[in-house]
Amino acid sequence: MPASSSTGTSSRLLLLLSLLQVRRHWPGDALARRLGVSERTVRRDVDRLRELDYPVQAVKGPDGGYRLEAGSRLPPLLFDDEQAIALAVALRIAVGTGAGIGEAAARALATVRQVLPSRLRRRVDTLEITAVGSAGRGGGPPIDTGVLLALSAAIRSAEEVRFDYRSPTRPDDAGLRPPRRVRPHHLVVRSGRWYLVGWDPERAEWRIYRADRMTLRVPNGPRFTPRQVPGGDVAAFLSARFKGSEDADAWPCQGEVILGLPAARVAPFAADGLVEELGPARTRLLTGSWSWAALAATLAGFGAEIEVVGPDPLRDAFAELSDRARRAAGAAGD
Predict the structure, then answer these.
(1) Which secondary-structure segment (H or E) carries 334?
(2) With contact defined as beta carbons under 8 Å apart, do 182 and 208 qualify?
(3) DSSP secondary structure of 67-104
(4) With contact defined as beta carbons under 8 Å apart, do 66 and 31 qualify?
(5) Quick one: how many helices (H) and strands (E) in the chain?
(6) Cα(230)–Cα(222) distance, rounded to whole angstroms?
(7) Would you say 154 and 220 are in contact if contact means Cβ atoms under 8 Å apart?
(8) What are the pLDDT digits (tens) for 199-236?
(9) Looking at residue 118, what is its pLDDT?
(10) Which of 3, 124, 125, 329 is deepest in the core (most CB within 10 A)?
(11) pLDDT tens, residue by residue, 3-59
């Protein structure tokens, strides 16, 4: 049924405008279903948007419907609550990415905040996000904005969080175990994925959790006194943990080789390794991995002649890799 109050009509108009902004063309019956009203009410709402100078065009025919025409005279765009929060999250991430737009993103965030209603401004103000490296890339899994806001609020108020956690190996066991307790310190976005960095009081150690695997419990736990992550830099701490190191932001296994390839072919796949051109088809590469076996396998993936400069554990790893490859080739030939 159509909403009868002016507040309901305004909310519906905002939702209608939001739908028209995200899709090129909407059939009238599809809009009616999304809005929960009749097609006649949709036509009236479209007329109201036109009165506000939004260029909504009606398309006739079997595939008829409505579309919002872009152009220089388009009035300021409106956002519903979810879009406003999503925009604030994106701008907060952009502030810390180091992509050359941090200052502009900070100004844009301040502008957006000023025009938000008080209820949304309070939610935006709770955002505590650290962007690490290529935060905007990676196509990570979807995550409920409410989870990000709840974790941000817990970080700001220094309150323990309780949550069920879905393990990647046992995703159905989340609700069968006691909820986990963590003192949240940083909400980090890295390569499109969201992570919570916190102190586990039961294990007395720092832990990292994927936020998309968390199902929060309410209410939060007791307040705590925040502490610093080891080294005081959450970006370096997270990078070190992903490299398998407990402290320094460096691979635990590092080696040096000379590859029979031009440097231009090595550099795009060297990640954070150091590349030095030695000749038209000789390149020195200093790189690392979380294990010697993984490092040898990564270097073998270049598909070129390899001269190991050092250290000896890398030579041993190549010998073991060679033995395994020989056994695999023998088994295939039997």
Answers:
(1) none
(2) no
(3) EEPP-TTPPPP---HHHHHHHHHHHHHHHTS-SS-HHH
(4) yes
(5) 11, 13
(6) 23
(7) yes
(8) 999 999 999 999 999 999 999 999 999 999 988 888 88
(9) 79
(10) 124
(11) 345 556 777 887 888 788 777 789 989 999 999 999 999 999 999 888 877 888 888
Total Cβ atoms within 10 A of residue 196: 24
- Report yes or no: 52 and 75 within 8 Å, Cβ to Cβ: yes
Instruction: State whether residue 212 is helix, strand or coil.
Output: helix
Identify the burial level of 19 via C-beta atoms within 10 angstroms of its C-beta, where 0-12 means exposed, 13-18 middle and 19 or more buried. middle
For domain 253-333, the CATH class is alpha beta
Q: Take residue 318 and report the two structure tokens written for it.
A: 């190549």
CATH 3.30.70.250 intervals, the chain: 253-333
Q: Which residues, other chains included, contact 36 with Cβ-Cβ below 8 Å and sequence gap of 6+?
A: 1
The residue assigned the tokens 């980090």 is 188
CATH 1.10.10.10 fits 6-68, yes or no: yes
| Strand, coil or helix: 289 | strand
Rounded-to-integer distance, Cα 281 and Cα 235, Å? 36
DSSP 296: H
Q: What is the pLDDT of residue 199?
A: 96
Residues forming beta bridges with residue 184, ordered by sequence position: 198
- For the chain, residues with pLDDT lower than 70 are 1-8, 70-78, 95-102, 115, 132-140, 169-176, 246-248, 331-334
3-state secondary structure of 14: helix
Amino acid at the residue 71: G
> Where are the domain boundaries for CATH 1.10.10.10 in the chain?
6-68
Give the Cα separation of 138 and 329 in Å (integer).
36
HSE-CB of 322 using CA atoms within 13 angstroms: 7
| C-alpha distances out from residue 253 to 34, 247, 265, 315, Å | 55, 14, 23, 12
Q: Which two tokens stand for residue 27?
A: 């059939």
